[in-house]
Amino acid sequence: MTQRVSLVVGGIKGIGAATTRVLAAHGPVFASYLSDHAAAQAFALEMKEQGLDVTVLPSDVRTRAGVAALVDEVVTAAGGIDIVVFAAVAAKLQSPLRVSEETWADVLATNTAPLLWLGQEMAERGRDNGRLVALTSPWSHRYVEGYGAIGPSKAALESLVVYLASELAKKGTTVNAVSGGLVDTPLMRSLVPEKEIEALARRTPLGRIGRPEDIANAVDWVTSERASWMTGQVLTLDGGYFLR
Ligand SMILES: NC(=O)c1ccc[n+]([C@@H]2O[C@H](COP(=O)([O-])OP(=O)(O)OC[C@H]3O[C@@H](n4cnc5c(N)ncnc54)[C@H](OP(=O)(O)O)[C@@H]3O)[C@@H](O)[C@H]2O)c1
């Protein structure tokens, strides 16, 4: 099978890390992060010990220039780029009535705008039949306490998926979002009290919250050749939570 080069933005922790592991079965993966160098080095060592071709890269994707520099590093090192997964997030919990201008700007710059810049890069420098995937959440269109800035940033992200999918189809590149209900990551554990996690698991038809692998396996399919006729879609995995 042809090797494919992947970039996972926010790929060293949580769902991004699980995605990096899964995509490493198909070729080299570049996993970017913002500033946690110690966690990045530990993750790089773990990948090396498992015999996986994973390179960690520090990068701030909040600016167009930051995204261009990151893609430069990948293309220079690997000779091209096939798959991009956007998994970075600024998880600033606030009521919409309390969101400051500073928080609003940072949340949109981190959670939404990078997909636009990554889409432009895929148009210019991505190989044909590429894949661009954004991670989102069903709370983009439903109320949950504290999601006053994050929810709207994810809704805009899902809209961008539609617009980019329409444009990138010219080169056979698909653009989709994978949406996860509550997923067990260190970030989520730091934000949601244990009691609420347990209550949500009880209300979920399949009886548990998500695991990072649940989302990573869906990304694996969406980025595969088997999903070559799916574009502009949001694929939701939530254990059936939003059925009720
Ligand atoms: N966990 C859930 O319940 C859940 C549910 C649905 C959707 N999601 C979505 O899934 C994605 C991953 O979530 P997660 O919980 O796995 O997050 P996470 O563990 O906190 O990982 C986020 C990563 O993004 C990086 N990052 C943050 N800002 C960045 C920036 N400006 N430039 C580059 N990298 C940046 C962080 O770097 P550092 O390590 O350096 O800080 C971190 O490695 C997010 O889009 C999230 O909204 C999560």
Architecture overview:
The protein has 244 residues and is of the alpha/beta class. The protein has a single domain (6-243), classed as 3-Layer(aba) Sandwich (Rossmann fold). The chain is built from 9 helices and 7 strands, in the order βαβαβαβααβαβαααβ. It has a 7-stranded parallel beta sheet, sandwiched between helices. α2 links the parallel β2 and β3 (54-58). α1 (14-23) packs across α9, α3 (64-78) runs parallel beside α5 and α5 packs parallel to α6. The longest helix has 19 residues, at 150-168. The protein starts with 5 loop residues before the first strand and ends in a 7-residue tail after the last strand. Pfam families: adh_short_C2. Belongs to the short-chain dehydrogenases/reductases (SDR) family. This is SDR family oxidoreductase.
N-to-C order of helices and strands: EHEHEHEHHEHEHHHE
Spatial strand sequence of the major β-sheet: 3-2-1-4-5-6-7
Largest sheet: 7 strands, parallel
The overall pLDDT, averaged over residues, is 97
Please give the alpha-carbon distance between the first and last residues: 42 Å
The CATH architecture category equals 3-Layer(aba) Sandwich
Bound molecules: NADP nicotinamide-adenine-dinucleotide phosphate
Q: How many helices does DSSP assign?
A: 9
User: What is the total number of structural domains?
Assistant: 1
CATH fold-level topology: Rossmann fold
Quantity of strands, as a count: 7
